[in-house]
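#lab-general

N.A. 3:47 PM
ok so I finally got the sequence cleaned up, no stray characters, all 141 residues accounted for. can someone with queue access submit it? mine expired

B.Y. 3:52 PM
send it over

N.A. 3:53 PM
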Amino acid sequence: MSALNSELPRRRKIRILIAKVGLDGHDVGARVVARGLLDAGMEVIYSGLRRTNEDVVRAAIEEDVDWVGVSILSGAHRVLLPKLRALLDESGASDIRILAGGVIPQEDIPELQAAGVAKIFLSGTPISEIIEYLINETKHA
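B.Y. 4:20 PM
back already:
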């Protein structure tokens, strides 16, 4: 990851809110990803468990993040993720992008992307792949 780290100091650090929305109470994966992103030099804010989409939108705006990363294991991704995108847009935060990870069936990915989720990382994705994606997709002035 040292090559990835060397790219971050040239621009503002990538800011990401890692969120657990809905009733899902399992956050080990979210914490592992958050730690990996911190180690890569990103600024990471963790929402804590069982947040509403409204909580996440409020925190994302207050923290001026580039991304919201949602960890979902509950099966509620088809409801929660499109609603999160809509709330960000309605709140004037359409520039904040969403990525998701966890237990999401392959067949649901096109629907979620059409609803505004930029990228979905399935369980077992290497942290380095997530880091590389965020670096390549985040444009800072």
